[in-house]
Write a structure and sequence with these properties.
single chain; three-stranded antiparallel beta sheet; 26% helix
Length: 502
């Protein structure tokens, strides 16, 4: 009994002593109740607006909640792309209504010339007001159905409805922000809006063999891996625009320091009148004539241009050579002054609804990140997709079928000269030399090399190459040979209106 009594006494005494000397310990961490806290946008998003928008709070454009108990609550009803055309009226348009309204009707925004030129060539009877009006088709039953699918899913990757391909310099914002929010290396440089976009902004869309890239002297390589040189010891060279390019002679205006917006101002790009400044408007200007651009000024009978980005002032050289007076009504300026031009002959476009990609192994680089990922995954990866698909570039929805592309010939050194409907000589390119093929999910050939039935001869369309330079010693060869040989205008359909000017 004694040990048991001693044990009880020890326990009792020890307990009493502990209660007298022990400090209070905090409860376990799990029992601590967090103090109420509200999260604001800047706590997670360390972004600064430009001075003109500094008074705007995040939720004015993006919705959501600026003070919330959690990220999820703060992002409720968040608008991720407030400048997108679907949101434009209530965001940018709330303060810039006139500009938003005119921009939404501009050719730069709607791309109606390009869209309607292709659709008319394949039988469309009416023009569309905008690329957003291109019909969607569940079943492809006609050539025009196939063209509509081609436009929505392959061609229209560079416009304000879509954020661009997943390459370092083709990613951009949407709507107004596509031009006015600066991107580089696949992400936004800042959240500050820029009034005057630099050329790099333009090139997020105007890359590849389209007007804009030529201004910087770039000509895209062919897609086949035998032509995509040079090879490097560390593998493929960088492809910031999806495909490598040859560096040719830049436009003389580019060499002088003019940015795209020095000639293509806001009135043209965001206006709904479709006005475009011409070479003769500046270089043929005479004292007393109206000034064709708002960054031009007269000084002692000469025309001076102030570059919008650099502030540099340049004298506009007037026309002096007698050839200008002789041929000005017979030939466009570029016929003599284009140093080179885009000449992609025989553009073949294939819609495949099966994953038979073996014939395309050497052509996995396609200028489309969607196409490239599916080809490389299926051909060289350890996994494969359940079905082939491609997104609608206007809605973002995924649909069965993948559009692939190839060319018969890609050249630049021999510009093609042809006549427009008024008989004037122009540099032309075979933009409508298109051939469409469709293989359905049952590997059945539905259409094979379908060509337009209402396109000009050889698919040639007048355009303005931005590769201007000195005419050189042989300019008369381009003029005389073509003035003598091309006696008839292009064989254009009577119901076609105006040629597209990409």
């Amino acid at each position: 009994m004694i040990p048991r009594i001693l044990f009880c006494i020890l326990v009792i005494c020890t307990g009493c002593n502990a209660n007298e000397t022990r400090e209070e310990k905090p409860p376990p961490a799990a029992a601590v109740i967090a103090a109420p806290h509200e999260y604001s946008c800047p706590e997670c998003h360390q972004l600064a607006l430009d001075n003109l928008h500094a008074g705007i709070i995040c939720t004015d454009c993006h919705g959501g909640s600026g003070q919330a108990a959690s990220k999820e609550a703060g992002h409720d009803k968040l608008v991720r792309q407030p400048a997108h055309p679907r949101q434009l009226a209530g965001t940018c348009g709330a303060c810039h209504q006139a500009q938003a309204d005119s921009t939404a009707r501009s050719l730069h925004f709607t791309l109606q010339k390009e869209v309607n030129a292709v659709r008319r060539a394949f039988g469309a009877g009416e023009d569309l007001a905008s690329l957003a009006a291109i019909p969607q088709h569940e079943d492809i039953t006609s050539a025009l159905d196939l063209v509509d699918d081609l436009l929505r899913r392959r061609c229209l990757r560079c416009h304000v409805y879509f954020r661009g391909d997943d390459y370092a310099e083709t990613w951009h914002a949407t709507g107004c922000a596509a031009c006015h929010m600066e991107f580089a290396q696949g992400k936004a440089v800042s959240h500050a809006f820029i009034k005057s976009p630099p050329d790099d902004q333009c090139l997020h869309c105007h890359y590849g063999n389209f007007v804009g890239a030529d201004y910087a002297g770039r000509f895209e390589h062919d897609y086949h891996w035998d032509y995509r040189t040079p090879y490097t010891a560390t593998g493929e060279p960088p492809r910031p625009y999806g495909v490598e390019f040859h560096q040719l002679a830049p436009d003389v205006h580019h060499q002088a320091g003019l940015a795209c917006i020095d000639c293509h101002n806001g009135a043209e790009l965001m206006g709904d009148q479709g006005t475009t400044v011409t070479c003769a408007a500046c270089h043929g200007w005479q004292p007393g004539d109206p000034l064709p651009l708002d960054n031009l000024a007269e000084e002692n009978g000469s025309l001076l241009l102030t570059c919008r980005l650099s502030g540099k002032t340049l004298k506009v050289p007037p026309l002096r050579h007698p050839a200008h007076a002789t041929y000005r009504n017979q030939a466009d300026c570029a016929v003599c002054h284009a140093q080179w031009s885009f000449t992609d002959e025989g553009t073949h476009l294939f819609r495949l609804d099966t994953d038979d990609f073996e014939p395309w192994a050497a052509l996995y680089v396609q200028g489309s990140s969607e196409v490239e990922k599916q080809l490389t995954t299926s051909l060289y990866g350890d996994d494969s997709y359940d079905y082939v698909f491609m997104s609608d570039k206007i809605t973002g929805e995924l649909y069965t079928g993948l559009w692939l592309q190839g060319y018969e010939l890609r050249r630049w050194e021999f510009p093609i000269v042809c006549r427009d409907e008024q008989g004037v000589l122009h540099i032309c390119r075979p933009l409508l030399d298109l051939h469409l093929t469709f293989v359905n999910e049952n590997s059945e050939l539905v259409f094979d090399a379908l060509a337009p039935d209402r396109a000009p001869a050889m698919g040639l369309v007048p355009y303005t190459p931005h590769t201007i330079g000195k005419a050189g010693a042989f300019f008369k060869n381009r003029l005389k040979e073509n003035l003598e040989l091309l006696k008839e205008p292009l064989n254009m359909e009577k119901d076609q209106q105006t040629d597209p000017q990409p």
